[in-house]
Amino acid sequence: MSINMQDSDIRNVLELIAELTGLNIVISPEVQDTVTANLSDVSVKAALDAILQPNGYSYFIKENILVIKPAGTEMIGELETEIIKLKYIDAGNVTAALGNMLSTQGSIVSWSPKLTAGGLGIGGSATLLVNIIITETQENMPRILDMIKQIDVPIANINISVKFIETQLDTSKGSGIDWTGGVPIQLGGSDTLGTIPFKLDNVTVATLNPLQLSNALRLMQARGTSKLLSSPSVTTLDNHPANVNVQTTVYVEGSLGGGVNFQGQDNVPNFPGLGMVI
């Protein structure tokens, strides 16, 4: 669409746009202004936004009727509702993110359909999907939907793996520096750096990448000086907490309270779980 108008009545310009697009038009009596516009090869929406918004007016389309009104004036039919199925993020996060983007007439409501126990075949209920119901003006709805597409994206998974190793330390075969010694250190010149140990905030003594660490552990096991006790791992979403329980069951003999004899024996077996939660 191309329009070239100089100091023209805004109502005449709007009627021309309606005629070019084949839309019926209704203009509020409060819409009174003159406009100068020189638009070339623009969409109908872009032309209406450029002409109406700087002058304090807005519009909405109901079926094939273009309604022009002052901005901020509420009219029946200008609101539309969309139901969005979220794939990756929680409805509460969406509500918080879009709260400042809604117009005074807009609203967001979260909704989660549930199945009853009879429908599932098990006790209780289960949440299947998380949806949000958005009610907003036609003018602002595309902006809201575009923002939802940008934030409803997959969250990276983080895998955490830990190895618990039992090892034997043999200092007779060790080599290197005894960091507990009291040997003065001098690095060129007459100034003495100090005695070991001293504080080294920005010095990296040694680092191993995952492959080097794995090879070092295999070497320790091959020498018979180390034994892998446990290798727990857990996968969680980025910036989300996760727990992994490392536990073993041990046999402990104990007596019943009050010295009660159990099947002719004073002691009964007990199997407590010992371990840690990471």
TrEMBL record:
One of its GO terms (cellular component) is outer membrane. Transmembrane segments: none annotated. It comes from marine metagenome. This is Secretin/TonB short N-terminal domain-containing protein. The keyword Lyase does not apply. Residues 23-71 form the Secretin/TonB short N-terminal domain. GO terms for biological process: protein secretion. The keyword Membrane applies.
